[in-house]
Design a protein that fits this description.
The chain has a single domain, classed as Aldolase class I (TIM Barrel). With 291 residues, the protein is an alpha/beta fold. An eight-stranded parallel barrel has the order 1-2-3-4-5-6-7-8, surrounded by seven helices. It is built from twelve helices and eight strands. One of its GO terms (cellular component) is cytosol. This is 4-hydroxy-tetrahydrodipicolinate synthase. InterPro entries: Aldolase_TIM (IPR013785), DapA (IPR005263), DapA-like (IPR002220), Schiff_base-form_aldolases_AS (IPR020625). Catalyzes the condensation of (S)-aspartate-beta-semialdehyde [(S)-ASA] and pyruvate to 4-hydroxy-tetrahydrodipicolinate (HTPA).
């Protein structure tokens, strides 16, 4: 899974004013991040507002992303839910031939036990035609996947090859890095913590911020993986205020405000997500004017 080291970007889903998918803007974004140097793209992550997309729209987004990426970089597809059986059914229907892997978020809302999380992922891995990346994001799911559960899956389930860790718990991250199988990748899911996590031994980042900071973020990750921390720190601190602004109200509202300011897409969402407040947008505009 060397192709999934470095910077992955969790693509947003652009909408027009009528809330239909803006395919032209998505193509523009895909070209922008690839030209900016990201190592791979992730389609249908939570940053893509997937809970508001229909099943047909999700299939169209997968096909469109493969077409426009055109094998320039690997593509990871998000396939996750709190209904294990539904995930298995979707894996049967998704056009995954060109995918490098699937990213599957830990089951949310139902707050399963650690054994329930383990069995959920074991079932998905058995059904998946592609390698599986675990995704722990307790701030959204309501349940942390412990280091013990992650390591159990990493050691016992062959088709599980990586973990996107977004718990924000550095001790937990270090435990996973220390005890993981040699070829198992640990990927940061926290843009603002990524530099420190890379220093601990993570293999890269699946980033929200790289939708806008494609070049600088990719360069920061690349420098850190080469142990050039002076260069990585310079880039990290250049973007640091941007991280704070981007996530202060909502994701993906923050990143869409950045991309709207850049002229890449409209600042449009599907409920219940709303645009950032006028005050925050003004702060973002002032920051980007001087970036």
């Amino acid at each position: 899974m060397e192709q999934l080291k470095g910077t992955g970007v969790a693509l947003v889903t652009p909408f027009k004013a009528d809330e239909s998918i803006d395919w032209n803007a998505l193509e523009k974004l895909i070209n922008y991040v690839i030209d900016g140097g990201v190592n791979y793209v992730v389609s249908l992550g939570t940053t893509g507002e997937t809970p508001t997309l229909s099943a047909d729209e999700k299939l169209d987004l997968i096909k469109f992303t493969f077409e426009k990426v055109s094998k320039r970089v690997p593509v990871v597809i998000g396939v996750g839910d709190y209904n294990t059986r539904d995930v298995v059914k979707r894996l049967e229907k998704c056009p995954l031939d060109e995918a490098a892997a699937i990213l599957s978020v830990a089951p949310y809302y139902s707050k399963p036990t650690q054994e329930g999380i383990y069995q959920h992922y074991k079932t998905i891995a058995a059904a998946s035609p592609k390698p599986v990346i675990l995704y722990n994001v307790p701030g959204r799911t309501g349940r942390n996947m412990t280091a013990e559960t992650t390591l159990r899956l990493a050691h016992e389930v062959e088709n599980i090859v990586a973990m996107k860790e977004a718990s924000g718990d550095i001790m937990q991250c270090m435990q996973i890095i220390r005890d993981k199988p040699k070829d198992f990748l640990v990927i940061s899911g926290d843009d603002a913590l990524a530099l420190g996590q890379l220093a601990c031994g993570m293999d890269g980042v699946i980033s929200v911020a790289a939708n806008y900071f494609a070049t600088d973020f990719s360069s920061m990750v690349h420098a850190a993986l080469l142990n050039d921390y002076p260069a990585a720190r310079t880039l990290n601190y250049k973007m640091l205020e941007g991280f704070e602004l981007m996530f202060s109200e909502n994701n993906p509202a923050g990143i869409k405000a950045f991309l709207h300011y850049a002229g890449i897409m409209e600042n449009t969402f599907r409920l219940p997500v709303m645009p950032v407040s006028d005050g925050l947008y003004s702060k973002i505009a002032a920051y980007l004017k001087n970036y």
